[in-house]
Each structure stands twice: as C-alpha cells, then as structure tokens.
Amino acid sequence: MSRIVTYSPSHTLVPTYECFNRCSYCNFRRDLGTDGWLSLDKAKEILTALQGSEITEILILSGEVHPLAANRELWFRHIYNLAELALNMGFYPHTNAGILTFAEMEKLKNVNLSMGIMLEQMTVTLLNTVHRHAPSKVPSLRLEQLQWAGELGITFTTGLLLGIGETECDRLVTLETIAALHQRWGHIQEVILQPYNPGKREQWQNNPFDLQKLPALVRQAREILPPDIVIQIPPNLVPDPLFLLDCLAAGARDLGGIGIIDEVNPDYLHLHPDKLKEFLAIYGWELKARLPVYK
Ligand SMILES: O=c1nc2n(C[C@H](O)[C@H](O)[C@H](O)CO)c3cc(O)ccc3cc-2c(=O)[nH]1
Ligand SMILES: C[C@H]1O[C@@H](n2cnc3c(N)ncnc32)[C@H](O)[C@@H]1O
Ligand code: SF4
C-alpha cells in the first residue's frame, strides 16, 4: 500500500504587494504608493475563471499597512471583503496578512477556514540583519499572533523560514516554541519548513538554505512537534526531487498550496500536480488533494 502525502490545490490573491516592512529576503513587496490594490471586481473576475476548476483554496497573502497608518482600516476591510467574496463564490479562504490586531483576527475568522503567519525564527538577532527594517518580524509580536489564534480557536498554519542567518540551535528553539503553543491550545494544524531561496527582486541575494540539511531538520521537527501537527515542505523550493523524497521519509506529509504561481517565490515554478503525482507514485507515495483544513 502506498503512503499518503497531501497538497492543497490553491490560487493566491494578493490584496496589495505594498508593504511597510522591508525584509531583505523578500521578492514580493513593493514600496508604499507604487503599486495599488487588487480591486474586488478584478478578484471576482479571477475567481469566476477558477470556478469549476480543481482549485478549492484561495490563499490571501498580503503586504502590510502600518497599524497606525490612516488607511489601516481600509486595508483590513479590503482583505475581509476579498475573503468574504471568495467564500461566497464557493472557495475556502486562508489568509496570511502578517500582523493583525486581536479584533481584526476575530473578524477575519468569520470568513476564513484557517489562517496563518510564519514565526520565521524566534531569535532577536535577526532584528539586526534581515529584519532590521521589518517591525512586523519582532518575534514576540509573531508569538502573540499565534497565542491569539489559539484563544480564538482559529485553525492555524505557521512555520520557519530557514537560512536567513539563524543557527541550528535557533531552529530547535523555534520548533519548541510552536510545540508549547500547540500543547496549550491545540490549534496548529501544520508547520511549514520553508527554505530561503534567493529571487530576482530582493536586496539580500544570499545563498539558498543548504538542502542537504533539510531531511535531518524534518526528522528533528517530527520529534519536537506533537504528532497531530503536519510538517509541510514547499516542493518548488526543493528543486532536487530526491531531497523531497528524503523529507517525506523523514516525516513530512504535506506539500502546501500548489497553484500556477508561488507569489512569494515567483522565480520557482511548481510542477503540475499531475506530474508531481506521477513522480511520487514511482517511489510509493500517493499525492492527494486536501482542503485548507485537513479534517
Ligand atoms: O504557495 C505558498 N503558500 C504558502 N502558504 C499556504 C500554504 O502552503 C497552505 O496552502 C495553507 O497553509 C493551507 O493549508 C502559507 C500559509 C501560511 O499561513 C503562512 C505562510 C505561507 C507561505 C506560503 C508560500 O510561501 N507559498
Ligand atoms: C509568506 C512567507 O514567505 C516567506 N518568504 C519571504 N521571502 C522568502 C524567500 N525569498 N524565500 C522563501 N520564503 C520566503 C516568509 O516566511 C513569509 O512569512
Ligand atoms: S516578507 Fe512579508 S512583511 Fe516582509 S517585506 Fe515581504 S511582504 Fe512585507
């Protein structure tokens, strides 16, 4: 019998690429005032074209507006409206819009199946390097988001960004932090182990995370995280399929949202799920579609 690995057939809507943070590894962000917002009409057009396709999840992934900026409320309302539109058109929205207030999170919960934010890494040392100009990446703030999601009972995705200047020990601390949160609230459904990959637009232009290290990290994560948390690996960021197989052997069981374009890493294309399915089947893995919540 073959073992099962899942993915979510998804399409990403980007409310805005404009972001007040400047994470130096980011290929997604645009400067404030240079890009504008996705209109509801345009979103409706995109979603209409997706109706009847295999896509079930709409990932709403956004650049961020400063919490005290005059247009913060408009920005939030726009994200809410996009999620509500997707839901009303028969899709399952999953929003990751960075740091939200408790009240914003509580509202968004009504129009999302699940939500998420990457913890990235818990170490504060990154505030002097890649996160120097990214107030949203203060570890205690992100931790608080995960705590609020727990209090609100929101099914949640989080994860580690790997290879941004953290040590091996930092990675374990971040995993232990997630494990502790889940022990308290039981709301973390998946943890993404996301290898940093350089792209064309970013400032940083560093070396990619050493993929040789990924299977061992998956194994450590499997030991640290409670058994009901699924480990997710984005297959387009693991270009050598043999490493992907090693990650599955080490305990990863999900390949995340797969769509036409990975908005975060547009330079790294996804294989078509059918192709991925064929490849994995050769090695005894059955690739199965899932929804943004597993159950
Ligand atoms: O295609 C992507 N999906 C990303 N997803 C979506 C993920 O792959 C799954 O589709 C959802 O978590 C639903 O299970 C994220 C979700 C989060 O909550 C937080 C971060 C990410 C990051 C990515 C990403 O970089 N690319
Ligand atoms: C949405 C998530 O995408 C991740 N992210 C941002 N930039 C990159 C990159 N160059 N490579 C891989 N992941 C990245 C961060 O972890 C963010 O939280
Ligand atoms: S990673 Fe997110 S918070 Fe950082 S600059 Fe990019 S869009 Fe903004």
TrEMBL record:
Catalyzes the radical-mediated synthesis of 7,8-didemethyl-8-hydroxy-5-deazariboflavin (FO) from 5-amino-5-(4-hydroxybenzyl)-6-(D-ribitylimino)-5,6-dihydrouracil. [4Fe-4S] cluster binds at C19, C23, C26. This is 7,8-didemethyl-8-hydroxy-5-deazariboflavin synthase. Gene3D superfamilies: Aldolase class I. PROSITE patterns: RADICAL_SAM (PS51918). It catalyses: 5-amino-5-(4-hydroxybenzyl)-6-(D-ribitylimino)-5,6-dihydrouracil + S-adenosyl-L-methionine = 7,8-didemethyl-8-hydroxy-5-deazariboflavin + 5'-deoxyadenosine + L-methionine + NH4(+) + H(+). Pfam families: Radical_SAM. It comes from Microcystis aeruginosa NIES-44. Residues 5-236 form the Radical SAM core domain. Pathway: Cofactor biosynthesis; coenzyme F0 biosynthesis. The lineage of its organism: Bacteria, Bacillati, Cyanobacteriota, Cyanophyceae, Oscillatoriophycideae. The keyword Repeat does not apply. The FO synthase complex consists of two subunits, CofG and CofH. Its cofactor is [4Fe-4S] cluster. Keywords: 4Fe-4S, Iron, Iron-sulfur, Lyase, Metal-binding, S-adenosyl-L-methionine. Coiled coil: none annotated. Its EC number is 4.3.1.32. SMART domains: Elp3. One of its GO terms (molecular function) is transferase activity, transferring alkyl or aryl (other than methyl) groups. Belongs to the radical SAM superfamily. CofG family. InterPro entries: Aldolase_TIM, CofG_family, Elp3/MiaA/NifB-like_rSAM, F420, rSAM, rSAM_sf.
